[in-house]
Amino acid sequence: MNIVRQKGTKDIFGDDILVWQFAEDKIRRVTKKFNVKEIRTPVFEATELYSRSVGDETDIVNKEMYTFEDRGGRSITLRPELTAGVVRAYIENGFSSLTQPVKLWYQANMYRYEKMQKGRYREFNQFGTEIFGSNSYLADIESIQISYNFLKEIGINEMISLSINSIGCKSCRQNYLKVLKDYLAPHIASMCDTCKARYNKNIMRIIDCKEDSCKKIVEEAPMITDYLCDECREDFENLKNGLDSIKIPYEIDKKIVRGLDYYNKTVYEYTSKDLGLAIGGGGRYDLLVEELDGPSTPAVGFAFGMDRIVLLLKEYGANDKIVNNVDIYFVTMESGGYNAIHEIVSGVRDYGYVVETDISNRSMKAQMKYANNINSRYVCIIGENELSTNTCVIKNMESGNQVEVELSVNKILEIMN
Ligand code: AMP
Fold first, then answer.
1. pLDDT, tens digit, for every residue of 309-345?
2. 272: CA distance to ligand 1 center in Å?
3. Hey, which of 87, 115, 191, 406 would disulfide with 195, CB 3.0 to 4.6 Å?
4. Which residue's CA is the closest to the ligand 1 atom numbered 6?
5. Residue of 308, 310, 312, 313 best suited for mutating to test ligand 1, as the one with most atoms within 8 Å of CB
6. Within 13 Å of residue 193, how many CA atoms lie on the same side as its CB?
7. For 133, which DSSP code?
8. Dist. CA 198 → ligand 1 center (Å)
C-alpha cells in the first residue's frame, strides 16, 4: 500500500496508548478535584476567530494554520489552539449568565503546519483549562495549581520548571512598548528577518527570540516587569506570595512574553529541565472575551502539550510501571467449551478483572501458548475432566504453582486474591 500517514501525524497504539490513558485518567482526576467542567468544541471554526484572537501577526496565524474554503465558500480553519474556541463557546452559549467563575477544561487535537522536530507535530494534543469571571490573582494561582497538580499526579513535577512573568495590562504595556521601540530602533539591522518584521507588528516577541543575534540585543533591553503599573505590580507580588505559600516552586523569567496576542498580566511556562522542551504554558487574557464581542470578562488559562507529556513519561520510565496485564485466561475445550464456561467468564469480568478466553477455536495447547504470550497472570483450565467434576485448575503463570478448586466465580476470585 502506498498510502501513508501525513507528515507530522502519528498512529498511537500498543504500550504508548497505556501511557496516554494513564495521563488522561489523571486529567479527569485533577479537574474533578478542582470542580472544572469538561467542554468539547468543534475541530474547525471560522478562520476569523483565530485571526481576531490569536493575532494576525503571530506565527500561528501567519504561517501555520490549516485553512481552507469549504464547499459553501466559507473560510474554515482547523483549530491551532483551543482558548479561542472556548471563548467563542462561552460567548455563544451565554455562559456569562451562569454563576461565575466558570471553569472549563478540554483535551483535544490541534493542527499547526509546523517544521518537524522532536516533540513537534502537525497534529498534536493539548490538555487545557480556562477560568472565566475572576480578575483576582487567586484565579491565576488556581490555574497554576491545577496545572502543577497534574504534573504531580503523573509524577514528573520535579523534572519540570515553572517560569512566571507579568507582561502588564494594556495601559502599562503601552508605555513599555514605546521604550522598547526606542531601545531596539538602532539594532534593527542586526536582527533576524523574523524580528525585523516583528518590530512593527509584534515587537514583544523579539524578547523571546531564540536567534543568537537577537538574544544578544535583548540582553540589555528594558523589561516589561520594570514598567508595570501599581495594580499589575501588586497582582504579581500577590501571585508570587501565593505560590510560595502553597509551595509551588517557580522562577521569574522576564523574557517570557508568550507567542499569542491575547495575554496580559500573568504569563507562565513549564519547561522540561532535562530536555529543555516547552511542555505547556498559560496566562491571563482579560480582554479576549470582549474583543470577540462578548461581555467584558476577565479570564486565565493554560495548555499542556500532551504529546510532550507522554514523551517525558516514557523518558522517565513511567511506561514500565503502567502495565495492562490480563488477569486471567480461561482455557477451554475445543468444541462446546465456551458454552460450558461463559457464565463463569462473565462473572469474573463483572468484578472488573481483565479476562480473556478462546474465540478462535484453538487447541488447549495453543490456548496455553496464547495465554503465555499475552502475559496473563493466571490461567484457568477447564477440560472435560474438570467439567464432569465441576472443578477447574488455576495456574499462577509467574510462580508456576497450580491448584484445583471448585468451578465457581467465588473460588476463582479467592485464588486470584
Ligand atoms: P502554545 O499553544 O503554543 O502555547 O503551546 C502550548 C504547548 O503545546 C506547548 O508548550 C507544547 O507543549 C505544545 N505544542 C505546541 N505546538 C506543538 C506542536 N506543533 N507539536 C507538539 N506539541 C506542541
1. 999 999 998 777 777 789 999 999 877 777 778 899 9
2. 13
3. 191
4. 280
5. 308
6. 0
7. S
8. 21
Backbone angles phi, psi at 31, to 5 degrees: -65, -35
Per-residue pLDDT, 329: 97
Alpha-helix residue ranges (DSSP H) falling in 167-246: 170-184, 193-201, 212-219, 230-245
Task: Rounding to the nearest 10 degrees, give the CA dihedral for residues 184, 186, 191, 197.
Answer: 70
| Number of residues in the chain | 417
Q: What single DSSP character describes residue 52?
A: I
How, if at all, do strands 75-78 and 44-46 pair?
antiparallel
pTM higher than 0.85: yes
Mutate which of 10, 118, 126, 260 for ligand 1 pocket (most atoms within 8 A of beta carbon): 126
Cis peptide before 295 (omega within 30 of 0): no
* Other CB atoms within 10 Å distance of the CB of residue 197: 14
| DSSP label at residue 191 | S
Q: Which residues of the chain have pLDDT under 70?
A: 259
List all residues whose CB is within 6 A of at least one atom of ligand 1. 81, 112, 114, 119-121, 124, 126, 259, 278-281, 303, 305, 307-308
Between CA 69 and CA 75 the distance in angstroms is 5
**Which amino acid type is present at position 331?**
V
Residue 150: closest CA among 275, 19, 283, 28: 28
Q: What single-letter amino acid sits at 332?
A: T
| Residue 101: DSSP 8-state | P
Q: Under a CB-based contact definition with an 8 Å cutoff, are residues 114 and 120 in contact?
A: yes
Q: What are phi and psi of 26, to 5 degrees?
A: -70, -35
Residue 98 per-residue DSSP state: S
DSSP letter, residue 317:
T
Q: Whose CA is nearest to atom 5 of ligand 1?
A: 280
Q: State the pLDDT at residue 205.
A: 87
pLDDT at 259: 67
Encoded amino acid at 15, one letter: D
